[in-house]
Each structure stands twice: as structure tokens, then as C-alpha cells.
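Q: What structure does this chain adopt?
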Amino acid sequence: MLRAMRIHSNFAEYVPLSLLLFYFVEQGGAPALFVHVLCASLLVGRVLHAFGVRQVKENYRYRVFGMALTLTPLIAAALQLLWLHARGIGA
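A:
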């Protein structure tokens, strides 16, 4: 039960913020392919991380790769929003 709680709490920490950032990126006019890649990376990352944590003998490769695939689109979306904001101010 504790493993399931850890998986769920980790999901609840990252996914809402990521989806909110993805929404703002989409509304900012980013290409649809970029938004789809962000979402797919988040999905695969969360599945890999959950699979790694779920194991009795945790496989840290899944956890690390899952977190990398979670944080990469989060950072990419944040950078995209900063770039869109800077471009809007300069106009």
C-alpha cells in the first residue's frame, strides 16, 4: 500500500503542473506536434517511473529514466513560455 501511495503522490506532484504548462504553451500558439511530444513524453515518463517504483526490488533505471522523461517536457514547456513571453514583450 505504501508503494501505491508513493506512486500516486509523485504523480499528483508533477502531472497537474505539467498539464497546466502544456495548456499555456498550446494557447501561446506552439505547434501541435510540440504539444503532442510534450504530452507523450510525460505519459511515458510517468508510466516508467511508476513501473520502477512498483517493483519490490526497485529498478532505479526505470525510475531515473521516468523522471528524466517527466522533467524534460516540464522544462521545455517552461522555456517555451519564457520565449513566447519575451517575444511578446519585444514586439
